[in-house]
Amino acid sequence: MEQFLNNVVSFPAVIFTVTSLCFLGFWVLTTLLGSGFDAFGDLDLDLETEADLDLDIGDTDLDADASSTGFLRSAMEFLGISGMPLLLALNLLSIFAWAISMIAMTIIGDLDGSSGLLIGSAVGVGALVGAGQLTGRIGGRLEPVFIPTRALRRGDLIGSICTVTTLKVNENFGQAEVRTAEGDSLVVQIRCEDGNELTAGSRTVIFDVDQDSEVFLVSADMEQT
């Protein structure tokens, strides 16, 4: 146990110990506060004023920011990290680097003097590269989870074929089942002019949306199955 604690606070593991604790503190705070971050609204921070001040930044500062962003992106690509949010990637990178450096230093043992610093630096770099590979592999597996999906809008269903699920459809009543382009099944409210022959099992086409009542308008003509 004593050897473990010594490695935790020794170079190079101590670097990743600090970063991992910082990330841990961040996640604890966000978990405890959550949407409670709105409570900071009581501070009445004038964000517009701060934004106005930022507009006075010169071209040199803007170029520096762009260069920093490009460097960080290049570093992440070099380590093989992609497919996940940057904050999560850095969090995993720190944890894996800490674990690898701890294992390496446990095997190597205590290091002293300039040679110890050299070996520790090599272990730190190796741990960082190894952690990048592990994080990249996880990111590749989880990439579909982090792909943003566009919310379905009512207008997206216009032109879709739907199957009536009620015994009748008129100007005040009716439901139907419709499938989205992704294959999901939705039950929607539909309306049609009186005197139609639509009934349960009939297939028809959604041709518009009533913006006031937010229901779908369907054709009185049935689709042939």
The overall strand count is: 5
If strands are numbered along the chain, what order do they take across the biggest sheet? 1-2-3-5-4
Query: For the report, how would you describe the main beta sheet?
Result: 5 strands, mixed, barrel
Helix content: 40-55%
Globally, the shape reads rod-shaped
Domains, number:
2
The helix tally amounts to 6
Strand content: 5-15%
Low-confidence stretches: 35-66
Rg over CA atoms: 29 Å
Oligomer: single chain
Mean pLDDT across the residues is 76
Q: Assign the structural class, choosing from mainly alpha, mainly beta, alpha/beta, alpha+beta, or little secondary structure.
A: alpha+beta
Order of helices and strands: HHHHHHEEEEE
Distance between the termini: 73 Å
What do you see in this structure?
By secondary structure, the chain is α+β, with helices and mostly antiparallel strands. It folds into 2 domains: 2-146, no CATH class; 154-218, Nucleic acid-binding proteins (OB fold (Dihydrolipoamide Acetyltransferase, E2P), Beta Barrel). 49% of the residues lie in helices and 12% in strands. It is built from 6 helices and 5 strands, in the order ααααααβββββ. The chain has a 5-stranded mixed β-barrel with strand order 1-2-3-5-4. Helix 2 (13-33) runs antiparallel to helix 5 and helix 5 (86-108) packs across helix 6. The termini are far apart. Mean pLDDT is 76; it is low at 35-66.
